[in-house]
Design a protein that fits this description.
With about 150 residues, the protein is an alpha+beta fold. Helix content is about 35%, strand content about 25%.
Length: about 150
């Protein structure tokens, strides 16, 4: 499974030339609830090392939301023995790009839900849509990748 970040690194990004200039991190984590915090910590630490000037809190929130979605809704998280969720971090001159990759789901696809403000679940992709510069979903036979981009310099 390749999302825009991981495909861009190898020059095989769909829909145009590769935009990333460098892989900053790749973390394969067990698809369990605690991995949202672990992924958030890895991404925050790596972006700090790279002098990221964008909104670190927003990136952390979006990573947490997407990993949590993988745990709750993907085959990786719903299996009797948890599978893997992968987080890929890369950058170019203007953006940090993050892929969250899992085994996908036979029953649903990632969709922005339009729920009441008081709803306790279902807002993750809405947050990704609202707070990222761009985002998308790539699904193929090997799984699902939800990706987003945020400005490097805020």
């Amino acid at each position: 499974m390749r999302g825009p970040v991981s495909a861009g690194i190898t020059g095989r990004r769909t829909g145009g030339p590769a935009r990333t200039t460098g892989l900053l991190g790749l973390w394969d984590l067990p698809c369990v609830a605690a991995s949202a915090r672990t992924a958030r910590g890895h991404v925050r630490a790596r972006l700090r090392e790279e002098t990221f000037h964008g909104d670190l809190d927003t990136v952390s929130l979006l990573v947490s939301e997407l990993v949590t979605n993988s745990v709750r809704y993907s085959e990786s998280g719903l299996a009797a023995r948890p599978g893997t969720v992968s987080v890929v971090l890369a950058r170019d001159a203007r953006f940090a790009e993050i892929d969250v990759i899992d085994a996908g789901s036979r029953w649903s696809t990632p969709t922005v839900l339009h729920l009441p403000l008081g709803a306790e679940r279902g807002r993750g992709l809405r947050l990704v849509r609202e707070f990222s510069a761009s985002w998308g979903v790539v699904i193929d036979a090997s799984g699902c990748c939800v990706w987003f981009r945020v400005p490097w310099d805020g």
